[in-house]
UniProtKB/TrEMBL annotation:
It comes from Kribbella pratensis. The chain crosses the membrane at residues 22-44, 56-77, 89-110, 116-137. This is Uncharacterized protein. The lineage of its organism: Bacteria, Bacillati, Actinomycetota, Actinomycetes, Propionibacteriales. Keywords: Membrane, Transmembrane, Transmembrane helix.
Length: 140
């Protein structure tokens, strides 16, 4: 996902203004933080949800995802404003960021990382990022 978001912010989806550069940077940095966050989560996969190690690992991942989501939302708003991509495509970064922030993150907090609900939410988020990838592959 980190590489896909990097490709998105380098694309022509939104004009390069100061604001879009900031949102793009937030997106890339946020997803870059999730990479070690994912690796740390592997180390605590057998721990209980309330353990200190799990809390620390999920915090690293969660902070990265929060930063990335805020960046994607801002970038998506910018992409919608410039009307370079059709609206249904330009809205994808906004929808993806908002979906992760408002659906995936609460699902993780309420039901845990290994619940069916979380798996479904993550699968839907994966489909959104795949749709962004399709758009990038068909326009670049």
């Amino acid at each position: 996902m980190a590489y896909g978001v990097f490709a998105l912010v380098r694309s022509d989806a939104a004009r390069r203004t100061r604001a879009t550069k900031v949102f793009a940077a937030l997106s890339v940095v946020g997803f870059a933080i999730t990479v070690p966050g994912e690796l740390v989560l592997i180390l605590v996969a057998d721990k209980t949800f309330d353990s200190a190690a799990t809390d620390l690992a999920s915090s690293v991942f969660g902070i990265g995802l929060l930063i990335a989501d805020l960046g994607l939302i801002g970038y998506g708003v910018a992409a919608l404003r410039i009307h370079h991509w059709p609206a249904r495509w330009a809205a994808l970064p906004l929808i993806f960021g908002a979906f992760q922030l408002l659906i995936v993150t609460p699902a993780i907090f309420v039901t845990g990382f290994t619940s069916f609900t979380t798996y479904v939410a993550i699968a839907l988020a994966d489909l959104l990022i795949a749709a962004i990838g399709v758009r990038l592959l068909t326009t670049e």
